[in-house]
Amino acid sequence: MKKILYIIAAGLLVALSSCGNKFNIGEKLAQMLGKEDTTAVAESAEAKAEAKVEAEAEENQWTEEAVVKRVKEIYARVNEEISKPEINFKAIDEEFCSKDYKELFQQAVKAEEGRDFDDLCFIEYQPFDQGLEAPIKVSNIRAELLTGDQAEVTFDLSEEKSAAKCSLGFVLYLEDGKWMVHDILTIPEEHKGVWDYMTKYVETHKR
């Protein structure tokens, strides 16, 4: 590309000289040719800076403390949402669930189309609050970092206004520097997760 620019610039130099142009042609051409180099360097520096920030963000998140903090953030948001007159659980999914989870959920919703009420994947979708009423208290958070970009966490949920309580677990994926929920597990039956449930539903209800 630069070679082509030099050829074009040389042609302009000849043309302008033949017309008796009195401008400082050498300076103008230097500005033209240098502009591309300056822009390329700036873009490269910006890309490197963004990559560094992203890498540092992910590195800072790779701690059990960061996972515990994320669970607290999720339930602060859950309490905010379920305190509203009209609850939008999809907003929680959109904010805190992994890309793969959201894609699988949409597949399950599509597979539900035209089904009888008792043949739906989710008669009532309440994976985060498990039917508890706000304010929900989260306690005994136990996090474990797994291989790669995954973590698992278990915790207890309870209503502050009653004795109602339950235990849950999350499998989390580190995406774009944030821990995102990839699966929601019932405790102590760890293998009965929402991910497996949706997967089996989609597989058995293919159209």
Q: Kindly estimate the percentage of residues that lie in beta strands according to DSSP.
A: 15-25%
Number of helices: 6
- Oligomeric state: single chain
| Annotation, overall tally of beta strands | 4
Average predicted confidence as pLDDT:
82
Q: Report the C-alpha radius of gyration, rounded.
A: 28 Å
Broad shape? globular
Structural class: alpha+beta
Poorly predicted ranges (pLDDT <50, ≥5 residues)? 2-17
- Biggest sheet strand order reads 1-2-3-4
Largest sheet: 4 strands, antiparallel
- Helicity, in percent? 40-55%
Output the helix-strand order.
HHHHHEEEEH
Instruction: Report how far the terminal alpha carbons are from each other.
Output: 52 Å
Explain the overall architecture.
51% of the residues lie in helices and 19% in strands. It has helices spanning 2-18, 25-61, 64-82, 89-96, 99-112, 194-204, and strands at residues 136-145, 150-159, 165-175, 178-186. The chain has 207 residues and is of the alpha+beta class. The chain has a 4-stranded antiparallel beta sheet with strand order 1-2-3-4. The chain is built from 6 helices and 4 strands. The model is unreliable at 2-17 (pLDDT under 50). A hairpin with a 4-residue loop joins strand 1 (136-145) and strand 2 (150-159). Helix 1 (2-18) runs antiparallel to helix 2 (25-61). The two termini are 52 Å apart.
